[in-house]
Design a protein that fits this description.
Blueprint lengths: L1 E7 L3 E7 L6 E8 L7 H14 L1 E8 L9 H17 L3 E5 L3 H11 L4 H24 L2
Parallel strand pairs: 1-4, 4-5
Antiparallel strand pairs: 1-2, 2-3
Length: about 140
């Protein structure tokens, strides 16, 4: 059983996948879009990856505000959740992702990745952190 993790941004979606036992998360791809509102190619790619990896559940980062309220980005994540469920037929879990992008950037910095290269990977690392947090919680 594999689980997919997604970090949904305005121009990119970081994608991570669990190992078959659901213990660890690995980054696999960053889906890039020309325009924020054009989701069809993004949904198609997520569906392809879900089929390729035999995904049974999708964990979608839910960017709540620091005061626990739901802002514009979180509303867009709720919309994406509905579209993913309709398109893939898979359950989509919203997972609190506050500060994962910051943590991903810090991880890349500590790994010695040059500043100009960090933006290439930060969304995929954020997806790994989202999925790993969910896996750790589920496996407790």
């Amino acid at each position: 059983m594999r689980i997919m993790g997604l970090d949904y941004g305005s121009r990119t979606v970081g994608v991570a996948i669990s190992d078959p036992l659901g213990i660890t998360a690995q980054g696999i791809e960053i889906i890039r879009r020309e325009e924020e509102n054009k989701l069809r190619p993004t949904l198609r790619r997520i569906e392809e990856l879900a089929g390729e990896y035999g995904v049974e559940t999708i964990v979608l980062g839910f960017p709540k505000n620091m005061n626990n309220t739901i802002g514009e980005r979180a509303e867009k994540s709720i919309e994406l959740k509905k579209k993913l469920e309709a398109r893939t037929g898979l359950p989509v879990v919203l997972w609190d992702e506050r500060l994962t992008t910051v943590a991903a950037g810090q991880t890349l910095m500590e790994a010695g990745v040059r500043r100009e290269n960090r933006k290439k990977y930060v969304d995929m690392i954020a997806a790994v952190l989202i999925l790993q947090g969910y896996l750790d919680w589920r496996n407790r």
